[in-house]
């Protein structure tokens, strides 16, 4: 992986910088403090390029507009927040390709920043379309990828584009790769990984690879639901994600390293409140958090670990009634003496909400990307830089 710092002359060069500005935008159309950490994480790279006198062309996606223009996913609020954070004015184009974009870029001066509109307004982005990648590449002289958290998918702006331009890793990308590589190559034992959240389809498949590398795998959230189901345990009406529980049977579900919830908090649909339940008796209810015995068991394992990696909330933490499990795990990890790496959009939001964000040893911008990287899988966006 070549580093941005290896580029000798950046002055006046048009640098295409892929960032991950996929941040939650509140109903007020503003990126609030506490939601802007993904933007803040890229500031060192942007500031470096400004200082060197480059012309900076920013690429990002936001949300899942699925290949068409969706007004609520425009990058205007991101433009405003970035401008505030840098103390610089930033131009935004109405699209990410086309004549207006070309004209805007042609007028750029040294140290200027242009933010192109949401890449995912074009379906070719997620399809890794050849012509689209080439068109993006034609906008600049060099390409820099600083979007670690978006590099686990072979999309045009992280993969296809690298075929047409000299390609480098940004400062954030380099830091993520260095720290996570060190964590897998020199794990401090016992090492524990905690996996939860909703995106079971991306997280479950990596568990079988993580079994070799970690001493304990603790699961919660929808990821745990799928495992319970695959073990033949009743999960009632719980969410299972976009995942066939049969797929989960590829994991060695009886491995003693794998820890599953022993009690859960369910939504009692009759009285519409949270209720504690033993595993296996869910009936018509939904599992929405791990229970107190599970949290205690997990916290004990965490406290005895020298390294803890965490991605994915243990439950529906956005609702107070189902936030306790996630809060307990956040507390256990950040108060443990072990080295902690915590990543993922919603996981970091939860950590911040409960006031533990500053206490993590390292916060990664990647969720799915971090898990895939930790499992030893090659990420297409990173491979493309080699
Ligand atoms: P991250 O962004 O940290 O990688 P995900 O996007 O995979 O995590 O999942 C986060 C979401 O999962 C949260 O919005 C949370 O409410 C939800 N979630 C966790 N557990 C459950 C559950 N048991 N039922 C429904 N939703 C859940
Ligand atoms: Mg998420």
Spatial strand order of the main sheet:
3-4-2-1-5-6
The CATH architecture of the largest domain would be 3-Layer(aba) Sandwich
Count of strand segments = 15
The pLDDT mean sits at 95
Give the helix level as a range of percent.
25-40%
Top CATH class of the largest domain:
Alpha Beta
Task: Report the sheet-strand fraction.
Answer: 15-25%
Classified in CATH, the superfamily of the largest domain is Phosphoglycerate kinase, N-terminal domain
Q: Specify the overall morphology.
A: elongated
Structural class given helices, strands, pairing?
alpha/beta
Which H/E pattern describes the elements? Answer: EHHEHEHEHHEEHEHEHHEEEEHEHEHEHH
Beginning-to-end CA distance, first to last residue: 5 Å
Integer tally of domains: 2
User: Which runs of at least 5 residues are low in confidence (pLDDT < 50)?
Assistant: none
Largest sheet: 6 strands, parallel
CATH topology label of the largest domain: Rossmann fold
- Determine Rg (CA atoms, Å): 22 Å
Work out the helix count. Answer: 15
Structure description:
- The protein is an alpha/beta fold and 386 residues long.
- It has two domains: 4-174, 3-Layer(aba) Sandwich (Rossmann fold), CATH 3.40.50; 187-374, Phosphoglycerate kinase, N-terminal domain (Rossmann fold, 3-Layer(aba) Sandwich).
- It has 15 helices and 15 strands.
- The protein has helices spanning 37-40, 43-51, 76-86, 99-106, 123-127, 130-137, 171-185, 200-213, 221-230, 245-248, 292-303, 324-335, 345-353, 368-374, 380-383; strands spanning 14-18, 55-59, 91-92, 113-115, 142-145, 167-169, 191-195, 216-219, 258-259, 263-268, 273-278, 286-290, 307-311, 339-343, 362-364.
- Strands 3-4-2-1-5-6 form a six-stranded parallel sheet. A six-stranded parallel sheet has the order 9-8-7-13-14-15, sandwiched between helices. It has a three-stranded antiparallel sheet with strand order 11-10-12.
- Helix 8 runs parallel beside helix 14 (368-374) and helix 11 runs parallel beside helix 12 (324-335).
- The longest helix is centred in the middle third of the chain and has 15 residues, at 171-185.
- The radius of gyration is 22 Å and the shape is elongated.
- The N and C termini lie close together (5 Å).
- The model has no long low-confidence stretch (mean pLDDT 95).
- Bound molecules: adenosine-5'-diphosphate (ADP) and magnesium ion.
């Amino acid at each position: 992986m070549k580093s941005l710092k290896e580029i000798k002359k950046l002055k006046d060069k048009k640098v295409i910088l892929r960032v991950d500005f996929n941040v939650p935008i509140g109903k007020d159309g503003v990126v609030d403090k506490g939601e802007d950490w993904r933007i803040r994480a890229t500031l060192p790279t942007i500031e470096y390029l400004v200082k060197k006198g480059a012309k900076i062309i920013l690429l990002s996606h936001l949300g899942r507009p699925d290949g068409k223009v969706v007004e609520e996913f425009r990058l205007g609020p991101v433009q405003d927040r970035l401008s505030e954070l840098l103390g610089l004015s930033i131009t935004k184009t109405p699209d990410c390709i086309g004549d207006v974009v070309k004209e805007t870029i042609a007028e750029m001066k040294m140290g200027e920043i242009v933010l192109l509109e949401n890449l995912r307004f074009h379906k070719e982005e997620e399809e890794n379309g050849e012509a689209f990648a080439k068109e993006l590449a034609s906008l600049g002289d060099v390409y820099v990828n600083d979007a670690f958290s978006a590099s686990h998918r072979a999309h045009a702006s992280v993969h296809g584009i690298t075929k047409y331009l000299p390609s480098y890793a940004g400062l954030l990308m380099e830091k993520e790769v260095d720290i996570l590589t060190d964590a897998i190559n020199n794990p401090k034992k016992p090492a524990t990984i905690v996996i939860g959240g909703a995106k079971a389809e991306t997280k479950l498949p990596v568990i079988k690879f993580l079994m070799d590398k970690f001493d304990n795998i603790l699961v919660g959230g929808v990821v745990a639901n799928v495992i319970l189901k695959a073990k033949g345990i009743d999960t009632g009406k719980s969410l299972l994600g976009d995942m066939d529980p049969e797929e989960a049977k590829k994991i060695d579900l009886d491995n003693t390293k794998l820890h599953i919830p022993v009690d859960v908090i369910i939504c009692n649909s009759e009285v519409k409140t949270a209720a504690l339940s033993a595993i296996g008796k869910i009936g018509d209810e939904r599992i929405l958090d791990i229970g107190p015995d599970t949290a205690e068991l997990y916290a004990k394992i965490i406290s005895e670990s020298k390294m803890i990696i965490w991605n994915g909330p243990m439950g529906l933490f956005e609702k107070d009634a189902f936030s306790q499990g996630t809060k307990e795990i956040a507390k256990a990890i950040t108060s443990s003496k072990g080295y902690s790496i915590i990543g993922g959009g919603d996981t970091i939001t939860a950590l911040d909400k409960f006031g533990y964000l500053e206490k993590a040893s390292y916060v990664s911008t990647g969720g799915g990307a971090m898990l895939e990287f930790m499992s030893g899988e090659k990420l297409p966006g990173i491979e493309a830089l080699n």
